[in-house]
Task: structure prediction
Amino acid sequence: MVTANLATVRKFCEWVEYLQSMGEALGLATALVLSGDADLLEIILLSLRVSLMATGIACLIGLPVGALVAIGRFRGRGAVLIVMNALMGLPPVVVGLLVYLHLSRAGPLGFLGLLYTPTAMIIAQTILITPIIAALSRQVLEDLHAEYAEAFRSLCLTRMQTVQALLWDGRHALLTVGLAGFGRAVAEVGAVIIVGGNIDHLTRVMTTAIALETSKGDLALALALGIILLVISLGVNAAVQSVRMTAARRAHV
Result:
């Protein structure tokens, strides 16, 4: 009985110490966020720059591809859809490895010297989210095309004109697709740490910094970055919901 009581007391003390350490780390993290720490801002800005550029490039590629597949009726379309949907689940570490092999000194693109640079991270994120944007936009635009197919035929629009009309008319829904791609990109860690190397003041972004600082035991900086990443994720979700509500209201007007 005494042994059991001692074990309970010990566990309680350990729990109290854990809560105290977490409280101290959270306090330091809040102080870092509010003070505008230079290193913290540098990591955040690099994360946003890399993810926004990757999202922009992925949209330039994925939206037209999704539109062409949405309106196209060709042999093997079912196989293309299967591949598009399967690529949405690309393992990040596999993408990182493939990009690494191509950009390494012995790879076919090694002469560009892009490995361990933000550009390599943008390439990896673009490859990851382009299938997501293409597949999601294809579904949105296919439903829209089914609604306007007769009108397009009566106007004798070319395929390119049809794509342009669909992209414009579905811009609100496609914005949510782009925001979903950005949310996926900004939370990525596996691919970017392989091709970026997590180099301080060069390729260190929020997710890789969180992994590094946690392994070092610097919970304050890790929590500060985690709080900001959470705020960004919540902001993206809020923006998606706002765009959907705005589009729904306009559709009913």
